[in-house]
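Need tokens for this chain, all 241 residues.
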Amino acid sequence: MKPDSQSVAEVLSALTKEFPNPKTELIYDNPFELIIAVILSAQCTDARVNQTTPALFKKYPTPKALSEAKAAEVEKLIHACGFFRAKTKAIISTASDLHHKFGGKVPGTLEELVTLAGVGRKTASVVLNQAFDVPAIAVDTHVKRVSHRLGWAKHPHPDKIEFELKGLVPEHQWAAINGLLILHGRKTCKARTPLCDRCSLTEWCAFAKARGETAQRSRPKASSRKKNKGTVSARGAQPSR
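Here are the structure tokens for all 241 residues:
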């Protein structure tokens, strides 16, 4: 059953109380640094990216500088972020497009951002949200997982989930929803071991309700047979005589 606007508002209110400042944890000084950091953050923690980018941006502070970089040098700098060869190719290509197509400036529209090599809707949406204060919803693995568990989304594809969420969440809260769901996913609604017993959203969560019902059904019923007074509960103990 599709969530109603009231329950969605209550979930957002509960999350906002828990995470009053749901901003990205990536550290950056300008839109160029942000877009590169977001690309590097794929399959990598923000903390690791934040440890990596200072040296990268010190050596390549502009799109022009990074576009002219040697791949081997960039690979050394970002090796700790994982998938370093693919990410090196992506960020150099992105920098090249920024330099040659946009005069070294990061564009401020979704349509322009997704024309950049290495940039999809998720990365573009994060940049719009954080760098330009433009309402957008970026669907990463945390947003996808929490949205599914809440019953807010059904589709497996991030682009479809984005539009499902846009149909539920008021536009003025699109920017906040990313940070809220990401932080909740990292802290509580974890992939393998969701901490439902500590979660503030169980009242509205389809996953938690189903999980509770399953646990209730699987709980063994208490036996109505009376124990022999001479027996004890320890395995292997013999009745007294």
